[in-house]
């Protein structure tokens, strides 16, 4: 191992921090004896530590701090150049071989903790999203149930007249029902069997009043609509549904009338 490889290996840092074992200490002393640049690297690192110590607040008394700084300066002024191998290595700092292993283990534990936290957070987010989705669905079903209950209550009222509209010629099988309350003029429409209109078309409800066809509202197509409240109509004698351009028409297109029923 040459000087540059030894300097870059981190052995000098371990020697200064007291983490080297007996063999490492012996190697450090040997490398300093063989290569002046190794000794210079060690002294430079000690100087760097000295500067860091000067910048950090010390809890030791001022006299103790002064003795430490003087000792470091003395070492810099009169460095000991050791060529021979030391005869007594027992006085050298005790090895702490587990330091690097403990550091690596700490890094692995930290990474494991981060990954575990990310996993649990992902699971929490997933469960939270599912809960919100189920809660939204439950609210929709509850609203449908309430609307259906209100519709059934209204349908059963003796004041409400059901008007069944059957398919006209060429539209056999089509059917829709109007629930007409003459006392309040409320009109409700239930689609029993109407095909979904093609794009650009829309179903429109008409009421016959005194021989004239009056617009009773457009049907916004949705599979969820069981009973739709339409426009109020007074004195209706009949109802019909035609397929009109999207947005509706002022008068029904006679050739597009699909169902018809008398009130």
UniProtKB/TrEMBL annotation:
Keyword Transmembrane helix: yes
InterPro entries named among the record's database cross-references: Anti-sigma-K/W_factor, RskA_C
An example Gene Ontology CC term for this record: plasma membrane
Biological-process GO terms, alphabetical: regulation of translation
Superkingdom of origin: Bacteria
Pfam families the record matches: RskA_C
Transmembrane segments: 98-121
Keyword Nucleotide-binding (UniProt): no
Keyword terms: Membrane, Transmembrane, Transmembrane helix
Domain Anti-sigma K factor RskA C-terminal: 102-253
MF GO annotations: sigma factor antagonist activity
Protein name, per record: Anti-sigma K factor RskA C-terminal domain-containing protein
Organism: Phnomibacter ginsenosidimutans
């Amino acid at each position: 191992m040459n000087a540059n490889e030894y300097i870059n290996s981190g052995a000098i840092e371990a020697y200064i921090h007291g983490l080297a074992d007996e063999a490492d200490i012996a190697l450090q002393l040997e490398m300093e004896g063989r290569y002046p640049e190794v000794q210079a690297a060690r002294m430079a690192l000690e100087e760097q530590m000295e500067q860091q110590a000067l910048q950090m607040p010390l809890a030791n008394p001022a006299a103790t701090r002064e003795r430490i700084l003087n000792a470091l300066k003395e070492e810099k002024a009169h460095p000991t150049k050791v060529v021979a191998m030391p005869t007594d290595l027992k006085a050298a700092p005790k090895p702490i071989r587990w330091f690097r292993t403990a550091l690596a283990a700490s890094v692995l534990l930290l990474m494991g903790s981060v990954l575990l936290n990310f996993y649990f957070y992902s699971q929490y987010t997933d469960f939270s999203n599912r809960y919100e989705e189920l809660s939204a669905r439950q609210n929709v079903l509850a609203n449908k149930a309430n609307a259906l209950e209100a519709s059934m209550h209204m349908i059963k009222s003796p004041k409400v007249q059901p008007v069944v509209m059957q398919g006209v010629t060429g539209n056999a099988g089509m059917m829709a029902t109007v629930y007409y309350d003459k006392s309040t003029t409320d009109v409700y429409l239930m689609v029993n069997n109407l095909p979904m209109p093609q794009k650009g078309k829309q179903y429109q409800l008409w009421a016959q009043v005194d021989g004239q066809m009056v617009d009773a509202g457009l049907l916004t197509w949705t599979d969820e609509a069981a009973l739709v409240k339409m426009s109020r109509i007074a004195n209706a004698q009949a109802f019909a549904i035609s397929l009109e351009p999207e947005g509706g028409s002022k008068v029904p297109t006679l050739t597009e009338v699909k169902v018809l029923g008398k009130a």
